[in-house]
Specification:
With 132 residues, this protein is mainly α. Helix content is 56%, strand content 0%. The chain has 2 domains: 64 residues; 43 residues. 11% of the residues are buried. This is Transposase Tc1-like domain-containing protein.
Length: 132
């Protein structure tokens, strides 16, 4: 079986049926890791993925050292946008669709969440809040 046949048999994350037009970094790195297991060199993988050879080398090195391509947990500032907070903001908005951003922020004051965070979460959830 030729290398091109191997590439065609890979699960294609770049298909046109997906909702994204371009693959995510995780999907691309997963493809690179699978290709590195099949045996082609860095140059062939780089040509196939249309990426620099140094990027391919970094992904393969990470895959071989860690055994996966998942990002390592970093000790950085935690995000305010937790799943629980997103659910509470969504519930508040659905409870009163005509509520302003300020009203929703005031109702979530006990969670110590700012107006900007509420606005970003609402926008990411697909809501457009009015700001009086």
């Amino acid at each position: 079986m030729t290398m091109e046949d191997h590439w065609k048999s890979l699960p294609q994350s770049h298909t046109t049926t997906s909702t994204r037009m371009t693959p995510t970094r995780y999907e691309t790195n997963q493809d690179i890791a699978l290709l590195s297991n099949l045996g082609p060199g860095y140059k062939r993988i780089a040509k196939y993925e249309n990426m620099p050879v140094s990027t391919i080398q970094g992904v393969v090195k990470q895959y071989r050292m860690q055994g996966s391509i998942q990002d390592v947990v970093h000790s950085r500032r935690t995000s305010k946008q937790t799943t629980k907070l997103k659910q509470q903001i969504k519930a508040k908005i659905e409870q009163n669709l005509w509520a302003s951003l300020r009203e929703i922020t005031e109702s979530l004051r006990d969670l110590n969440v700012g107006q900007t965070t509420v606005s970003k979460v609402a926008r990411n959830l697909g809501f457009k809040l009015r700001v009086p």
